Amino acid sequence: AECMQLFVGKAVKDEALMIEQRTGEPVTEEWLARFRDRRNLALQTHVTAIPNIQPAVQAVHARYDGRIACASGADRFKVALMLRKLGLVHFFEGRIFSGYETPRSKPFPDVYLAAAAALSVDPVRCAVIEDTVPGVTAGVAAGATVYAYSPATTAHVDAAALRRAGAHHVFT
């Protein structure tokens, strides 16, 4: 629960100092490689799709003629791994954006602004679906309408926190 509160929605690269302070270990390239190996194995083993995600994404993809993007604060490898695992990668081919590849990651809007620019859409005309406070903050800062996903699980960010961050709508 503490890790979820401290780190969910944030890039590891941006939290190195806090990680070092809490673990007593320097965040070196070797540390990052070990972390990513453990993370990737855990994701490959344990990540499951939320109910109805495939038909929901398929419907949005069809409605907007494929002009949708995945804009994540995570590194590209993690994003692609998760999209492949969940059977969603084909909906976002060529339109996957990582906060690791922008000047600043979430909570800054850079990754959303990059996605909107690539789609040739004014960010104000974009809808963002988020499930973290840094992500909601980034979407709002980009000028988008933010829909926040807040399932009723104890391990997830609660709806009130997402609303305080500026989410326009919260759904379960």
The span between the termini is 20 Å
Number of helices: 8
User: How would you spell out the order of helices and strands?
Assistant: HHHHEHEHEHEHE
Helical fraction equals 40-55%
Q: Give the strand order, joined by hyphens, for the main sheet.
A: 3-4-5
| Fraction in beta strands | 5-15%
Apparent shape = globular
What are the low-pLDDT stretches, counting only 5+ consecutive residues below 50? none
Structural class, please?
A: mainly alpha
In total, the number of strands is 5
User: Overall mean pLDDT score?
Assistant: 91
Tell me the major beta sheet: 3 strands, parallel
**Rg value:** 16 Å
Q: Can you characterise this structure?
A:
The strands form 2 sheets. A 3-stranded parallel sheet has the order 3-4-5. The chain has helices spanning 2-7, 16-23, 29-46, 53-63, 76-85, 110-118, 133-142, 159-164; strands at residues 70-72, 96-98, 127-130, 145-149, 169-171. The radius of gyration is 16 Å and the shape is globular. It has 172 residues and is mostly helical.
Tag the structure with descriptive keywords.
172 residues, mainly alpha, three-stranded parallel sheet, two-stranded parallel ribbon, 5 strands, 45% helix
Outline of this structure?
This protein is mostly helical. It has helices at about 1-5, 15-25, 30-45, 55-65, 75-85, 110-120, 135-140, 160-165, and strands spanning about 70, 95-100, 125-130, 145-150, 170.
Furnish the topology, listing elements before pairings.
Layout: H1 2-7, H2 16-23, H3 29-46, H4 53-63, E1 70-72, H5 76-85, E2 96-98, H6 110-118, E3 127-130, H7 133-142, E4 145-149, H8 159-164, E5 169-171
Parallel strand pairs: 1-2, 3-4, 4-5
